[in-house]
Amino acid sequence: MYRYSVLRYIIILPAFWFLLSGCATKEKVSPISSEALKKLHPLPIYTPIPAPIYTVSFPYRPVRDIEARIVIPETFSASETAHVSSKHKGLFDRSSRLVVELPVFGKEAGFAFPLPGAKVISPYGKRRGRMHSGIDLKTCPNDTIVAAFAGVVRMSKRYGAYGNVIVIRHQSGFETVYSHNVKNLVKVGEHVSAGDPIALTGRTGRATTEHLHFEVRVNGQYFDPNWVIDFQNRTLKDNKLLFVKTGNSVKITVS
To answer: Domain of 74?
Structure first.
């Protein structure tokens, strides 16, 4: 009896140790080389996305030659340089109608998206019960704002809720507005071409973040910038704008 008990332990103990060591399930293999491992589990290859390229088309002839056909003075009155909403003297003197064909205007004056690479963070229209008179564009602080079209700087100063603001009058008859700038780079009376740097993005005035507040106006009256620019594709719209002055207001239609 004792002999059988001893024999049982002699058989069971080695088998138990064999299982604990994992030898029953572990297969001994030779180490895999790094080259073979790459073939078995290739590392993912991420193709870098090329940075977007923003092109700017410039006027086919000098800016001053284009401006000679439109009422854009070399100097502006005190009222024009002091206020964002300012009447355009002489614009509707000959006729109450003004037609702007954007493709033609773009070829003559050039076009550049005012803040290359920016995204829209606040659209035109009603916002929290108030009218938002432009479109807010954002990239990063101190980014370069450029002139959308060729023209003459009518206003460049700090102005209430707009903060540091620039207004450029274009030969088409309408104006573009750039505000909340941390720094203005151009002065009143300067001629600019499409794509010229004019300011740096900031949050001056009534602003909660660094961005560009962009407007388009005619005779001091703002209208929807989406009628002029495709903000998703950052291109000029293929539209014809009709401005009809009646009294102190201007009726605007797009086709």
So the answer is: 63-254
